Amino acid sequence: MVERIKAVEDEAISRLNEIKNLQELEAWRIRYLGKKGLLTELVKNLKNIPTEDRPHFGKNLNITKNKLENIIKEKRVTLESADKEKKIKSSAVDITMPGKGIKRGKLHPITQVMNEVVDIFLRLGFSIADGPDIETDYYNFEALNIPKHHASRDMWSTLYIEKDTLLRTHTSPVQIRVMEKKKPPLAIIAPGKVYRRDADVTHSTVFHQVEGFMVDKNITFADLKGTLTALLHAIFGKAKRVRFRPSYFPFTEPSAEVDVECVNCGGKGKLSNGESCRVCKETGWLEILGCGMIDPNVFKNLKYDPDKYSGYAFGMGIERIAMLKFGISDIRLFFENDLRFLKQF
Ligand SMILES: [Zn+2]
Questions:
Q1: Ordered DSSP codes for 100-142
Q2: Do residues 265 and 284 make contact, with C-beta atoms less than 8 angstroms apart?
Q3: Which pTM value belongs to this model?
Q4: Are the C-beta atoms of residues 145 and 251 closer than 8 Å to each other?
Q5: Which pLDDT value is given to residue 294?
Q6: Is 147 within the bounds of a domain?
Q7: How far is the CA of 241 from the centre of ligand 1 (A)?
């Protein structure tokens, strides 16, 4: 009987050394210490041996049983900690790997150009004013020397809401609203959205304008030329030629349109391969903005003395500048919110 116990113990210990994981350990436990395990069977067998021999065998069995229980406990601790370490290693963060970049959003190209133009004027000493998108006929037209039934109203394809209420066709009404409240000297720009009944590759129903004006004593056309030339040089580069062409606007007299040398062909009208330039239609010039000296009639409406004060005003489309700056031929791209387009800026 003693040999039998010793044989079971030896077998158990030698097998234990080969165990590599917790499942195998459990199988081992069942084989030796389970309800029908080899050692348990030996305990059951005690009743078959003579009574006087039982204490001796019983003691031997107990020693072996305790021994096996102790070594399984130790083995379990070792296996469990190895298991844990393995899990940590496989899921651990490798701090030497580059991090995941968070994609930052960007400003819309129109906002970028708008900010650029506004910044230039702020540096020139202008301040910003704001006005409503829904305007009255008075502010949008009449106060700007465009009476009802005047032929020049055809210049703006107006979107009317009611008879005397409309979506502003330009940011010029802000001029009137500011001059009603304040006295010269004034140097103001009014950036904002404007609306027209017009839509094709170069016209949009909604677009953005920056309107500006300066009123004080002794303001001359030279001040206007200096300011706008500085603006266009800041946007398109100092090397670009700028020209002022006579034009007509009801609220300015004299009026001019301002052109900058074509950004596509360098003012030649033709490309280096001899093809004609489509951006400037072979003229070598790009029309950028309209301007002029504020008409004395506008001052009279505002009870400013036209003999005492003079001033200039100008207005430009931001989409037009952005299209030339970025070489975009279709204005609709700005409003489609296609990420493939927007990501390029
Ligand atoms: Zn050109």
A1: PPPPPP---HHHHHHHHHHHHHHHTT-EE----SEEEHHHHTG
A2: yes
A3: 0.68
A4: yes
A5: 96
A6: yes
A7: 13
Closest CA to 236 of 262, 217, 256: 262
261 Cα to the center of ligand 1, angstroms: 8
pLDDT confidence of residue 97: 81
Distance between CA atoms of residues 246 and 138, nearest Å: 27
Mean pLDDT confidence for 285-314: 93
Lowest mean pLDDT among 84-93, 128-137, 220-229, 327-336: 84-93
| Å from CA of 228 to ligand 1 middle | 21
Q: How far is the CA of 332 from the centre of ligand 1 (A)?
A: 22
Distance 152 CA to ligand 1 centre (A): 30
The crossing angle, in degrees rounded to 10, of helices 2-17 and 22-33 is 170
Say if residue 298 is in the same domain as residue 261. Answer: yes
DSSP letter (8 states) at residue 132 = -
Q: How many angstroms does the Cα of residue 293 sit away from the middle of ligand 1?
A: 29
Distance 225 CA to ligand 1 centre (A): 23
What's the domain range around 49?
2-87
Going from the Cα of 260 to the center of ligand 1, the distance in angstroms, rounded, reads 10
Instruction: Calculate how far, in angstroms, residue 320's C-alpha sits from the geometric centre of ligand 1.
Output: 15
Cβ contact 215:185 at 8 Å = yes
Please give the distance, rounded to the nearest whole angstrom, from the Cα atom of residue 266 to the centre of ligand 1: 6
User: From the CA of 208, how far away is ligand 1's center (Å)?
Assistant: 24
Asked if 153 contacts 141 with a C-beta cutoff of 8 angstroms, the reply is yes
95 falls within a domain: no
Answer yes or no: are the C-beta atoms of 70 and 33 closer than 8 Å: no
Q: Alpha carbon 20 to chain centroid distance?
A: 55
Tokens linked to 159:
């979107």
Residue 285 included in any domain: yes
Same-domain status, 140 and 55: no
What pLDDT score was predicted for residue 102? Answer: 84
**Domain shared by 53 and 201, yes or no:** no
pLDDT at residue 243 greater than cutoff 90 = yes
> pLDDT confidence of 59, banded at 50, 70, 90?
confident
Report the pLDDT value the prediction gives residue 322, as an integer from 0 to 100. Answer: 93
Spatial separation of the C-alpha atoms in residues 109 and 42, rounded to whole Å: 88
